[in-house]
Amino acid sequence: MIKQHSKMYKAGKKWVVAIISATTISILGASAVHAATENPTTVPAVTTTQVAAANQTTIQPNSNANSAAQVNAGHLDGVAGDGQGNLVVTGWHASNEYQPGTKQFIIVLDANNKHELYRSQAQVVKRPDVQAAYPQAAIAEDGGFQATIPAQRLNSTNSYQVLSRFTTLNNGEPANGSSDYYFPVITSKAGCLDTFQVSGNKITVAGWHADDQAVNEPTHSIILYDRTKNREVARQQVANLTSKDVAQAGILMANAGRSRFTANFDLTPALVGDQLVIVSRYSTPNGANQASQYSDYWFNDRPLTISDKQAACLDQFTVDRANHQIIASGWHAADASAFMPNHYLILFDQTKNQEVDRQKAATISSQDVAQNGFGSIANANRSRFNARFNIKDSMLGDQLVLVSRYSDDPTSGEGHHADYWFNNTVNLNQKAAWLDKLSWDADKVDIAGWHADDNAVAYPYHFLILWDVDKNCEILRTQVNNVASPDIAHVHGDMLNADHARFSTQLTLPIQDSSDFIKVISRYSNSSNGEGAYSQVWIPNTALNIPAYDGKFIYDAQGNGHLAPTDTPEHVAALIAQCVRTFNPHSDLQRVRLAAQYVSGFSDYARYTMSGPYYSKPIGVFIKHEYSCAGSTRALGLVLNYLGYQYRHVNENLYTHQWCQLWMDGQIGWADGQVGEAGYGQHPIEG
């Protein structure tokens, strides 16, 4: 019996197991060869003896044969090319079926459908080793054979089976007393892809492809095929390399001993995101695209997807106030960098929707990126960047973002490219201002404060403007000189003039405007008269003669007007309470007095009446514009409730003056919504 054992051979990084016969005749085949079931698999072990083929086709029987012995065994020793487009099959077939005039035929079947592909009368090869193993067989020593098969006959299949037949008929058909032996199925092509990967800007390929058709189609091409787009990308003609490991592993194809190949393909942007496969093709010199003149092996089990992964982080994107620059630093790892190696940083103006600057920025070592979850991205270990952009006047007032780009264009960064848009922004339209002092005595107004503004670097003339809200016009303006403000720079350091933003001045207010509601405007302009292009702030935190209510807006401590609600008195009262709090009153009395003044302000825009459905209710004072002292008292009481106070309605439902009584600062006091005043103790009308 032939014993079998496993032998491992290396195909690239993979180990493949081949089943090896324990006889010394030949290797039965690799794991891709499957034994047929038409014949017994138990045969005695024989020792190979090298015997030259004789020019003999007629079988001579063994004179010591035992007709009672049951013998039908065989073995394929090998398949090889003869250099003339043919496969030469060698082996032996021992049988006890013999008739005078017996001949041996070798028949090749398509292993998939058992259709006959070719038959030829075999040339007898003397095999004394077989005779020694089967002394009782009628056909043993003359059972050795050699047959030539045109390789082109195997074009239509990728596996075939060799049948040895002893028959007396000249056409090789079965006859009385004929004997058939089916050898194991032979794969006519096999291959393994050891390497298929991206290396820099190349796709590297290495492996082997053994193919019986190589004897007739010797030109070997490696084809890169895009499975996603269903098209060929590129092909290279390659010269095969020695592959003794393949041949020694039991691969029976004709060129198994010289079937290795290597190839390199350019990695292009068009391949990003696509799945690729390798096709190995043996063809006639002029038949690389003619189906009948080539044999392909598709390595579909080892596809390669060209990744388009990328990741990035912007560690710093800030304004360098001292140098009027924008600093950008971070990292951008991208698979596309393998074939688009030129790195650019682009400063993009989101306000104007246009690029404002770009720099070619070399990437530097970033082992931390590679070691913290991004090691699978091509350039993760070299993806950091640093850059500085000069701030131009055209950028002022705008919001900027950074774009990191890998491109195949080394000159300008256009061409094919992969971009990463960072979410971080630099806003060059930042401004902030505050009045530390706004006071007037007689006709003199003292103003002091600060105004930090990015636009100040382009607008050097600083003006303060007094604006009459009541008359809706400018009263006067004056130019001021800024002084150092390190305290402002500490808080607003990203504003370009934050370290030089303070101002102070004194103005003479015309007497006719001294009682008007006046706001202060701080303006940076590119013109010496304060006109032209400018950036300004209506300084919000205070104003002169701030009204409580002007018939439409309720004003807070900063002079900001809030549209008075017109739906419910509760909404009006809640807004008044909110505005009272903006004054940051230091006592209950101050808080309650402010509330009374707001309610009195509404009374100024309402009609006094003692009749009608609303005059005694908060809705009359706040929304219907009619009131009485009862309505003002209830309206003020509603505001006091929103401020957290409980009150008593004095003289409620009596035909006399009415007001609120409540505790303030630990003592009893009063508040009058009609008059707009409050105090401790008794109401003056009671004294």
Automatic annotation (TrEMBL):
InterPro entries in the record: KxYKxGKxW
Keywords, comma-separated and alphabetical: Signal
Signal peptide: 1-35
Superkingdom of the organism of origin: Bacteria
UniProt entry tagged with the keyword Signal: yes
Protein name, entry field: KxYKxGKxW signal peptide domain-containing protein
Species the sequence originates in: Limosilactobacillus panis
